[in-house]
Amino acid sequence: MIADRRPEQATSTCSFCPKACRFACPVSEATHSEALSAWGKMSAAHQVLTGARPMGADLASAVHACTGCGRCTAMCKHENEVGLTLFQVRGHAVQAGVQPRGAASTLATFQQAQNPFGREMGSLVASWRAQRPVKYPLFPGCSTLVKRPSLLEHTLALSEAFGAPMGVARSASKCCGYPLYAAGAMEAFGAHARAVAEAFEETPEVAVLDAGCAFTLVKLYPEVGVRLPCRVRTVIDVLHENLPHAPPAPPLAERVGYHDACHLGRGLGQYDEPRALLSKAVTAVVEAPSIRREGGCAGGGGLLPRTMAETAVEVARRQALEVAEEPSVLIVSGCPTSTRMFERAGRRAIDLVSLLERWVSQS
Ligand code: SF4
Ligand code: SF4
Asked: Domain spanning 246-360: which CATH class is it, in words?
């Protein structure tokens, strides 16, 4: 996945490029700013890395104006890893003390509580722990635990209905650490990843609900030399495998729009599995003109909702329009963060797991 891990080489490639991915970036499009295109942000990062300009608040803002969606990479003939490079360069903003306020507060909260919500997660997880052995230990992600317990309820109920019972794992009290990575705190992320890996030693396999967490565990941990001692799968992957065991139920008479969440699609290559599940659950599915590897972004990654909140919502609003112009269409995503972003943009949205639970509950 990482075409070139050296930030200097990656930023150099972009700064000498004729902006070939000009229209790929959702942040640039939402802000109408060429300075915030992949080319513009990587050129700013290049100036920092070569010492041409010191890292200041303006350059820090530029390198934080990225969700890490990977859409530019998908459209780049060099497959240049813009998002991950910009996240690395954010480390210079940490060192210079010029992080945008939302990134600095996220980092401070994380350093205090080991998660971005400042919550004590152990007791929260204990209230959900399985009371009996289950087939799949479940890692919901702290965002779902804190903000969307109904999605967790739906996941547990749906896994039973599919004959693949899940139960919240003890390791679920740990945040995967993605906010540290997105804040550019790479050393802290590496240390956190090693601690999380120890917590995963209790189980040979884990099902992960949040696509961002799964992407972090599977793709980002190896970047800092950490390999988990267990197999990591997404809940969607497990449900897809067990789809033949789903109870018979007619599809819901609902027309929905499917959004390829960045971490699930470009990040983990899961394009067909969610579509196969969705095709059983509803009568009609519409999609954006650009899908799969070239699909749009919902604005929830890279700390953008914390550093450029209005822009993040505008990114979601624009992507929702791409998926379906009619506001009545229910937008479905395999990533809880994307679902929340569409809701913040005023659209009807639902997690794929919750929609599937609604489908099987008819029977
Ligand atoms: S990501 Fe690729 S296409 Fe886009 S500016 Fe960089 S080198 Fe050019
Ligand atoms: S990773 Fe996404 S948000 Fe970041 S520069 Fe590329 S297209 Fe823009």
From this structure: alpha beta
